[in-house]
Design a protein that fits this description.
The chain has 384 residues and is of the alpha/beta class. It has three domains: 9-47 and 184-279, Rossmann fold; 50-182, Rossmann fold (3-Layer(aba) Sandwich); 281-383, Winged helix-like DNA-binding domain superfamily/Winged helix DNA-binding domain (Arc Repressor Mutant, subunit A). It has 16 helices and 17 strands. It has helices at residues 27-36, 56-67, 78-90, 94-102, 111-119, 133-143, 162-168, 188-198, 210-222, 226-235, 244-252, 265-279, 308-318, 327-333, 342-355, 375-383, and strands at 18-21, 40-43, 48-51, 72-75, 105-108, 149-154, 172-177, 179-182, 204-207, 238-241, 281-285, 288-292, 296-299, 302-305, 325-326, 361-364, 368-371. The chain is elongated.
């Protein structure tokens, strides 16, 4: 067990940050991991899984494999492999499928898939340490696939170049479509998640499958906000994927998504626990240590939630610590700002109340406001 990341004291390393979760399955597990570390979570499944237990395409593929046993079977996901076995049981051919799989070279894409394989009473011949389909492909091609019959349990998304490479090497490839990814039946939560990303109400956005990333991008494009979403993901909302395959749709759009070295939910959360606090702004103000996070501020380690208008003012002030920021500039920073500078005074009063230390922000009569930088820091920022 790795050590828990440092940060935010008793509040947890993700206290004050808001993280978006796009997962359709295991969303509860990921949400629990995030909230346990202090994060606020906005969940909207970017897709839904449609099982094909009653689908003639899956039944035909299963019967074909039983009738003509393949040389190799590649199991790609635990949920898909279990669904395949359960569907075969429902059709009355479960035992025949298990007998077929016992006599083939069975490759499992990762530990979760190995668990599903062994739960079915089977044993995999090999599994890549990276959980990467690219490594599975490299092994197959290195062994030589000419004349071999290879079945692949598909997992609802294309496998770019995988099937084509095997066929180019002379293999006969049979796809086993266990389930498909579809857009969510209720699109409203996904739209709210998109709106939160565009308004910078999220500090990070997590993806646990490539189809989820592709679905979010597709929905943004449908709504005419793709360019805005890409801008948010480039600059303000940290995109974190469970692995490099999941990141492919984002990378294709030029978004440099992060991924942990180990492709698991735990390491993904640990990566967030490191990256988000590192991006927060820490300033010495009026004798206090102030750390500006997504929707809250740590004042000497005390977590102080701040309303959106207050955070907008504080972020604007923190871009030039110690310098006077005019009211007109602060007004432009307010969400839905109008022309009445009194809105700045109202929001500033609420901000000071939320911070619990009114002297952190100074009023400069007839000019505006500034952060009360400590003397040593003030010299540093003035010089820089």
């Amino acid at each position: 067990m790795s050590a828990e990341p440092e940060g935010a004291g008793p509040h947890g390393p993700l206290a004050g940050f808001t993280v978006g979760v796009t997962a359709a399955r295991r969303a509860e597990e990921l949400t629990a991991l995030l909230t346990r570390r202090g994060a606020a979570v906005v969940h909207a499944p970017a897709l839904r899984i449609v099982p094909l237990a009653d689908d003639s395409e899956l039944l035909d593929a299963t019967r074909e494999l039983i009738a003509k046993v393949p040389d190799t079977v590649v199991a790609t996901t635990a949920i898909g492999f279990r669904g395949w076995i359960e569907a075969a049981d429902g059709w009355g051919i479960g035992d025949a499928l298990l007998t077929t799989l016992q006599g083939v070279e069975l490759l499992a894409r990762g530990p979760k898939v190995k668990g599903a394989v062994r739960a079915a009473g089977l044993t995999e011949q090999w599994s890549p340490s990276s959980e990467s389909m690219a490594e599975v492909l490299d092994r197959l091609l290195a062994e030589g696939v000419a004349g071999r019959r290879i079945a692949i349990q598909l997992h609802g998304e294309p496998l770019p170049g995988f099937v084509e490479s095997l066929r180019a090497g002379g293999a006969e490839v049979i796809g086993v479509p266990v389930y498909r990814w579809m857009p969510p039946e209720d699109i409203a939560p996904l739209d709210r998640l998109l709106d939160a990303a565009l308004s910078r109400g999220l500090d990070a956005l997590t993806f646990t499958s490539a189809p989820a990333a592709a679905s979010l991008l597709s929905r943004a494009e449908e709504r005419g906000m793709l360019a805005e979403l890409l801008g948010a993901l480039h600059h303000d909302v940290l995109p974190v994927c469970v692995g490099p395959v999941t990141a492919l749709p984002l990378q294709a759009r030029g978004v440099p998504a992060l991924a942990p070295e180990r492709f698991r939910l735990g390491p993904l959360v640990q990566l967030l626990c490191t990256e988000l606090p590192a991006r927060s702004r820490v300033l010495p103000l009026a004798g206090h240590r102030v750390e500006i996070r997504g929707h809250a501020v740590l004042v000497d380690g005390d977590l102080r939630p701040v309303p959106p208008a207050g955070m907008a003012l504080l972020r604007t002030l923190s871009r030039r610590p110690g310098w006077v920021v005019p009211r007109a500039e602060l007004l432009r920073a307010l969400p839905g700002s109008g022309t009445d500078e009194h809105a700045v005074e109202t929001a500033m009063t609420r901000l000071r109340t939320a911070l619990g230390a009114p002297r952190l922000i100074q009023t400069v009569v007839k000019r505006g406001y500034r952060l009360s930088l400590d003397a040593a820091a003030d010299a540093k920022y003035s010089d820089g």
